[in-house]
Amino acid sequence: MSGLRYVYAVCRPFGAALQAQLTGVAGDPPRLLAHGDLVAVVSRVPEADFGEEALRAHLEDLDWLAGTARAHQQVIDALTAVTTPLPLRLATVFRDDSGVRTMMERREDAFRRTLDRLEGRVEWGVKVFVEAEPERPAAAEPAPRPVTGRDYLRRRREQSRAGEDLWTRAEGFATGLHSTLSSLADDARLHAPQNPRLSGAAGRNVLNAAYLVRRDASEEFVERVDRTKDDAPGIRVELTGPWAAYSFAGDAAGEEEAGAGS
Amino acid sequence: MTVVERREIALVDLLDRLLAGGVVIKGDVTLRIADVDLVRIDLNALISSVNSNVPSPFGD
């Protein structure tokens, strides 16, 4: 068995079979590596692409990164259909099976704790965008030139006031929505707002949040998001999910919780 | 559960989770992604998205 081991997730053992046609990040179908009462979901990857130097270079190639991320996500998605996986960070690669076992041995208590916390839960992503940009008149239809300096200043003032109003409203809306949704969720995380140049999304991202929600509470959660969508003109709400609990798998959170004596 | 029908996942949403979420393993791995300069990944992503067809956002 040559090649390195790419680990997608750690789970409790589950009865169902994974989809037969499922392929991993380098085409090798994922398999289960059992250790004690946990299983790691693993596939083989070539050293030429996943060794340290090659991986470092690949991760800066957006096409490679995108393909790998989507393949990783497919495996996690398939797992989410049959169990509650604890996803690992993208591109977690070990030398061999024994490296994977050693890692599981070392972290089994933390894995069990986290899996218990996530059990039966999924992640929903909610983003809020401010859509309008009142300060930028349509390029095709330039505003008539101000006749006087006073006109010009008045127009600038009105534009910036409209912008500030929308901004204030958006902030209030996002804060209210976040608090409502947090009350329906077991946990919440704020991601950095997305760069519109990166996301290609229209408008400015003012909230980029993730919520950990019980599966049986998800319908209500989604309905709540849907209902708020039309509440605020100029503001757009986007829902993604259900995701595996990527944003709630983190060590930092676990350690903080442990440190807080929970 | 009943899954809300979804469009293809946007790469940026995926990367929010795969590069910032998930368990980070220290130790015997070939490379920790936390060691990778994500700012440079962002920059590359930015360049390629600007190149593709989007007009330059730097006009103003």
From TrEMBL, chain A:
It comes from the Bacteria. One of its GO terms (biological process) is gas vesicle organization. The keyword Iron does not apply. The keyword Transcription does not apply. Belongs to the gas vesicle GvpF/GvpL family. PANTHER family: PROTEIN GVPL 2 (PTHR36852:SF1). This is Gas vesicle protein. It comes from Streptomyces parvulus.
UniProtKB/TrEMBL annotation, chain B:
It comes from Streptomyces parvulus. This is Gas vesicle protein. Keywords: Gas vesicle. One of its GO terms (cellular component) is gas vesicle. GO terms for molecular function: structural molecule activity. Belongs to the gas vesicle GvpA family. It is found in: Gas vesicle. It comes from the Bacteria.
